[in-house]
Design a protein that fits this description.
alpha/beta; about 55% helix; Rossmann fold; single chain; 7 helices; five-stranded parallel β-sheet
Amino acid sequence: MDLISRISENFSESAHLKLQSMDALAKPIAAAAERMVQCLRADGKILACGNGGSAADCQHFSAELLNRFEMERPGLAAIALTTDTSTLTSIANDYDFEQIFSKQVRALGHKNDVLLAITTSGNSKNVLAAVAAAHENGMSVVALTGHNGGRMTEVLQPSDIHVCVPAQSTARIQEVHLLTLHCLCDAIDCLLLGVE
């Protein structure tokens, strides 16, 4: 096995997918940033949920908003629903794993808030349940998916925003999701701080 060639192929595939996705994803990413800024300006907050690598992406995004991205600014209201192990395990134990995010959304989410729902397949039951809970609370949803969007395409409302990466590989989808999150952070800062 030639590891150098394999690593080079991973770099090449990732770069190719990002460039291939740029035109299709730029508009929904911009719309998502504008929606999030509307939320923040209305004293709302962004709740984020996902599983596995997507859970890590939620924490990464929340940290960039709460602390700072690349420019100095006050902290922005964001909560990763993936981090409180006592809450997660009590809900999973007392009810079921499918409700670990939806119960938090029902308790913490309000009308001016945005749910960032991340699922590479678009089929994660607990993320889909969180979307339903967000809709019940009158929240907007920004969904990050891959493949063909999975069941997420069936549960999103027309006013929601869907960023669907046109790829099948989970690793490649997650790499574009990370770039998307960084684009969101940058766009939010630009909109809030007036950067050209």
